[in-house]
Structure prediction request, 668 residues.
Amino acid sequence: MTIPGNIQEEYKKLFDKINYHARMYYELDNPEISDAEYDKMFDRLLQIEKEYPEIVATESPSQRVGGEPLPQFETVKHNIRMLSLQKVTTEDEFIEFDERVKKGLGESGEIEYIVEPKLDGLAVELVYENGIFMLGSTRGDGSHGENITQNLKTIKTIPLKLSAETSKKYPVIEVRGEVIIRRSDFNKLNAKMEIEEAPLFVNPRNAAAGSLRQLDSKITASRPLKFIAYGISANDLSGLRSQMAVVDLLQSENFPVNDYLILGKGIDDVSKHFEKLNSIRSNLNYEIDGMVIKVNDFEKQKQLGEISRAPRWAVAWKFKAEIATTILKDIDFSVGRTGTITPVAKLEPVFVSGATISNASLHNEDEINELDVKIGDTVVIQRAGDVIPDIIRVIKEKRTGTEKTIIFPHTCPSCHQKISRPEGEAAWRCFNSACPDQIIERIFHFASNSAMEIDGLGGKLATQLVEKGLVKDLSDLYFLKKENLLLLDLMADKRAQNLLDAIETSKRRELPRIIVALGIFGVGETAALILAEYFGDFDKLKSASLDELTEISGIGPVIARSITEYFANPGNLKMIENMKNAGVNFAPFKTDKKSSRLTGKTFVITGTLSRPRDYFKKLILNADGKVVSTISKNTDYLLAGENAGSKLEKAQKLGVSIINENEIDKLI
Ligand code: IVH
Prediction:
């Protein structure tokens, strides 16, 4: 169907108007028109799109409402690693950082820094190709994240399209930033959750994370998420010479950037800004946990480089963790999924860093002895980020003489069998593999979001499944019958069916998640991904020797030993066999990086190809290769299209392999 010219024009106008007013409303909190007027424009846009489906553009505001639920998130590789930051907590430590920077640059004058709040949210990356927002992902482990494009599109402050000028200059551009929820929105959201009798979020960061990791993007669309940009990464940022220029570009493309961002010189400006942010911190409508300081000049950044996944040109100066005083009422001992016995301090509830705290961790027996803490003591707790707080000190002056000594048990609080403390370890462990609490914890972990992601299977249900004898090991989950489930408390037909459906869906999870789900001591998301990528095939991992495992970069000797111990246990092997028989997907793992076929290989691209150069550049980067602009004897391949000129000649002279489009496909 051809689209009449006047409709096209109307569509384009509506498009721009809606984008403008959405920005005024969502980002600048300064609406110029009523909600009804806005809705009217939006309805007209939808009407046109319904009538002329071919008109719908990827960057249309209608694409922000959320799409069909996904079965699971795909893993994506970041073109350029998302780095982490070195940390300092005092001015002296910052001064040492500043000295390292000066030394690295061989300079003595004051360094120019961009200083801005460190937002306490979730790091994400947005990839724009030819100006259109194409791919959005979580930070993940820095090199791989999850594809959450659909969800990010629902955030109204994320532009779906960049200006023509920027897209021409930078055909592929990656914008990085933090997704947050404001405190006021968080309170409203929790009030709504309470009415709906849904579990409440602990803090804005968790609420943001939970909302972004929804498979149903319609749920994400209903959550008050905000995006704040703090950086751009691209292979070629020519024309941009400093972090400040990046901030300017981000702003001119309508990305929200940090308020309270300054360009300062030397230690004094930075310290002053720290004092300021520290003093206004609790009055801000969003949570910040420190400040990020970046060397402004890109040449200098390059010169400084990076070390162990963190740049030498940036640092996070963290605020002091908040502390509070309360009473230790009791100690509970719990058994984790790997059998570790953990003492948990039960506290008189106190409010600290935005949350009410009633538990604190005490880690192990040695710590109880070192702190010399007793039941009834007044204790100082410290909370950093969203972790359970630690007890850092006992106020002994407040003792009345009625405090009771804590006695560490020598039997398991769940199965009552004898527990032991292996040599060299700080923890007491229960080695009974049929210990009910361990199984409950293992099921809970198995069903969690980073593992098999079985919706609706939480701690309470796991407890019932074990107590009623329906699940003795993890594989039993895949043999549950509806009639058995209906015997459980609060389990109606619909809920039972939903649970069975969720369990069925979980059979399709990919290998890294299965490895996480098994709950092998020390093997979390990062190690699981490394193992899946290294072995590809589960059976190879299962039969790997201690030596082989130890040699894998990222797998230390402790984890290696725990893996071999896990697979030496006949009970575990039987359980895995049962899962396979039930249809759990143990298929070989293929990463999007299509192996690391091009690791260490350097490419130059020249001539006219059938697709934009950036397409090929991405292909090479995805396979872990490098793309540079000038040929030297260190270049491995020249990818040459039609009308290749001087580069082709140079490659011939230097003996660099020359390949065409088809050959690169084969290489990868
Ligand atoms: S810059 C190489 N700026 O902090 C520099 N990061 O460890 C990379 N973060 O999770 C980060 N606010 O998402 C930068 N203004 C800011 C930030 C910020 C929060 C987070 C970031 C990442 C962590 C870095």
Remarks:
- Residues 511 and 589 are 6 Å apart (CA to CA).
- The chain has six domains: 5-56, 86-318, 322-405, 436-506, 511-581, 602-667.
- Residues 5-27 form the longest helix (23 residues).
